[in-house]
């Protein structure tokens, strides 16, 4: 905080849509050289505010000031030329082009007759890449880069203008831990150069690690700005959702029953090898590891989406071969997949039809689908999981992330599975819904389901699991009980340190 | 506020544009020619749309499941020629089931290629358009096919007969539309067609055999083509090898016009029927106001483009957007 003139000010922004007051007099001040978090549940107005700032939407009233200058953001291009740059959650890069071409896309330096001045392009790009301390060259094809490095290209693009403020929207959603470190370095560097950074994220660890101040929105209203050093998760959560949240570790196990699923020495090419574990009825088995550790691939094998090379899968003590999702479902295995929108839901379909999709063949009234039975299932699980939707006719794509996830969970619960596998149950979901889904998972175990939870978030795994399987590079390193596990031992296990000492 | 109203109009046009355009067409044609809305003209339009309509019903399944079928035109020529030829060789009561079996084998082949081998449906059916045309010419030796004894057979019943004062083609179109509408809207299979077209990956993750669903949509499409071929052969009692040429685009236009999305996952049989009728009335109207029949090729193309544009516009909620 080197200067007293804010880099960026939003004052009393009001934005209404027909029937909704999406932003109700929201103000936000970002100082040069600060990292300013913007938090709120899904639907609180964060994205609307950012779209106003980025010139995608025009506010009904209120002012935007850059430095001392009141401005109107006419379009996204206009915003960029005024030094307000967005790093989007979803990358918008041309994979087949080089890094340099992507960085200067639309404004490539020219020579006579409109020929591209490649030398100058590569030179200018190299200068920016130097600042970012990345390990690739301007000539690299973007499609060959890792996700994190692609994000760096996106950031490099932001640095082609004299940025006053850079907005990061959930930048770590698809990054590994190592990649996150690089990203945080870049943000620290931006900060050191006096750029104001707005950081949007649901992840508390990152907020506390990275930011200087935190502004909170709830239901389109500004709920205050806090200094990160002087606040706590509880206080933030309370401001965001208006109530307290239970984040304590669960130590009261449900009564554990018979082994529902046992896996012995399962291997699949280079994805994972010699994986063994068991899960009992009434227990939540957590799978923790870095992205690429092989957890999702194990789950996909159990669901019949991959063929294992070796090993056994035993359901209720009986060895089975699972060749397709159809067979997995018939044997009582359900998978709530990692990618909710891509794998879990048909977004254009209504809530009821999505929920009953796996069992639509069984709900018969003569030759037709028994719609009454379908509605009964929908009503039952809507009440049970507290799914908030105007009715079953609502298209799933119109629901919030949390409610969408509950539809996917309801879809598989209504199949009464023997084993329920949940992959990344709360990815991209706001804190309020997160804790509801955690409670739901605990309740399922208490009701005698065998549940497997795969997660990349340590607090989540610690919170919901009775036992935790730590994976590293396709191998099970160790299985912890919730009594013996500590954050340190878990981190060591998933980074492969335990493996070396134990071996 | 003025901006808001403009936006609302834009959204309305984006959602209901086709109907609005249709109403304007109807009013215009009726003002230009009093006969346009006369009962006999209306019945005539429906009757002449029936063959196209029957084919469009089947293609609706294919399009909702997220694929295309450009082979229906030449497949219809094939079934027409085959049934006419077999009529004189083995008699109508054997010729009809034989033609259905042969046509549906072609549909099954396409379904196998697109469903099980997961080949791009545009390429497969475009290729089949040409391949089936070749097959038809090989079968007929390039000659026109005629029924020798046009008076001495009951075969003309399908194309020329009527029951309760309603022409058989209209009855058949209505009956098929009702049956297929039930299949699509009320059965588990229909639900799966929507799921596969809406999000194929999610459908697989829900235990739906995607390949089988896609396969069956093409079998249904070829069944409808066989029905259309039967109507065509029975109406004319003789045919050229190219009778169905170009119909694939009109069929697709009708389906898209009805509101099925080319991206898959949306559309209904009822909407397709509406699309067929819109197309039929517009073509009829153009003739009644005295334009040459070939003008309709241009108009049909304009309508396809308009329908595709409005389909995209409805998805993004406005008529024009700077980003795709």
TrEMBL record, chain A:
In terms of SMART domains, this protein maps to: AAA (SM00382)
Q: Which residues form the ABC transporter domain?
A: 8-244, 251-498
What UniProt keywords apply to this chain's record, in alphabetical order?
ATP-binding, Cell membrane, Membrane, Nucleotide-binding, Repeat, Sugar transport, Translocase, Transport
A GO cellular component annotated for this chain's UniProt record is:
plasma membrane
User: One Pfam family of this protein, by short name?
Assistant: ABC_tran
Q: What is its main location?
A: membrane
Where found in the cell?
Cell membrane
Q: How does it sit in the membrane?
A: Peripheral membrane protein
GO molecular function annotations of the record: ATP binding; ATP hydrolysis activity
Report the SUPFAM superfamilies cross-referenced here.
P-loop containing nucleoside triphosphate hydrolases
InterPro entries for the chain: AAA+_ATPase, ABC_carbohydrate_import_ATPase, ABC_transporter-like_ATP-bd, ABC_transporter-like_CS, P-loop_NTPase
State the protein's name.
Monosaccharide ABC transporter ATP-binding protein, CUT2 family
Species name for this entry? Limimaricola pyoseonensis
Task: Read off the lineage from the record.
Answer: Bacteria, Pseudomonadati, Pseudomonadota, Alphaproteobacteria, Rhodobacterales
From TrEMBL, chain B:
Membrane topology label: Multi-pass membrane protein
Q: Which InterPro entries match?
A: ABC_transp_permease
What are the protein's GO molecular function terms? transmembrane transporter activity
Q: Which residue ranges traverse the bilayer?
A: 12-32, 44-64, 94-116, 122-142, 163-185, 213-231, 251-282, 294-314
Pfam families given for it? BPD_transp_2
Example of a GO cellular component annotation carried by this entry: plasma membrane
Keyword tags? Cell inner membrane, Cell membrane, Membrane, Transmembrane, Transmembrane helix, Transport
Localization per Swiss-Prot or TrEMBL: Cell membrane
Is Repeat a UniProt keyword of this protein? no
**UniProt protein name:** Monosaccharide ABC transporter membrane protein, CUT2 family
Organism of this sequence: Limimaricola pyoseonensis
